[in-house]
Amino acid sequence: MAVSKKNQLIGLDIGSHSIKVVEIDDGKKGRVLKNFGAIGLPPDAIVEGSIKEMDIVSSAIKTLLQNLKVKNKHVATSISGFSVIVKKITVSSKEESELEATIQDEAEQYIPFDINEVNLDFDILSGEEEPVEGEEGEKQGPDQMEVMLVAAKKDIIDDYVSLLQVAGLAPVVLDVDAFALQNAFEMSAEATEGCYALVNVGAEELGINAIKNGISLFARDSSFGGSQITEAIMSQFKLSFEDAEKMKLGGAKIGKEKAALEEIFTSVVSEWVQEIKRALDFVASTYADETIEKILVSGGACRIPGFQKYLKLETDIPVEELNPFANLTVDEKLFDPKYLKHMAPQAAVAVGLALRSIGDK
Ligand SMILES: Nc1ncnc2c1ncn2[C@@H]1O[C@H](COP(=O)(O)OP(=O)(O)OP(=O)(O)O)[C@@H](O)[C@H]1O
Ligand SMILES: [Mg+2]
Which range marks the domain in which residue 148 is found? Predict the structure, then answer.
């Protein structure tokens, strides 16, 4: 398979509700949006991050790429919380060569999965020069270093690799949703100095990543998302998945259902807000000096009525939608600005992935 010019990859976000693809041309004229699209998946095709219907998902990917005439076969994709653990740990400083063995040994205590069933990866966050606060708030000694540990379940990685191969693609980068999102934030934000919280509310997953000057302080994914609302509507009003989605998104006529619907919104949204608040309270108590300047929300479900307002009210932190297209050049003859605006929250992870290039891990 010929490697595309400029080492560019297509960003493919395989979510449980829909698959998103983004291509970005990074050339003399800066970053230009070359392709963007999404295709829906039936509710049982991907459950809790694991691919249940390989054929359905791979043909959805093929259809999406064919429709958009995507030629590049080299893909950056990502996995998330159900199958990956991201944790900051402190170890004593070591030569890079020794570090791997140390981390392998130490990792076991931090990982809730069987160590033999995971692939470990790590990134050195700080060395001796710059002591920073550790996870528990303790000052880090001069011979300590901070490492971001990433442990992903092998069977899930294998599934994603096979899925892409079945779809005729070459997996090149396997990222984590939280980091792809961070990437999209850094590319699109006006300012990135200081502390920010990135919150992604998808269909089945709520991801929180608190970052400071481009380094993750704390990241967690939990099982919340827009599907909770769809499911509650399905059972309350005895509707199919499709009709419940329609009602949720305001596409169905509602009369006497209005009050019950609003109650569903309110109760689910307040669960999300409590979850986010817990995480941010933890960050505040661990890193006493840091104040979060802004919460950037993304993921399709961040548009559920009332969510952003309630989040701001409860945390007293400004809340804004992350617009991953903000610093990309967009030809309005090729992309309908209204469509991009509508899809922006759902596109964030895919944009972050498309910014990766061959040679990245
Ligand atoms: N305008 C909107 N208002 C409210 N909810 C929306 C809107 N648009 C999409 N959603 C909901 O957002 C969810 C899809 O978001 P997203 O594409 O970020 O999820 P996903 O990446 O497919 O899923 P996950 O990452 O959780 O596996 C669905 O539950 C969908 O109903
Ligand atoms: Mg998602």
Answer: 84-153
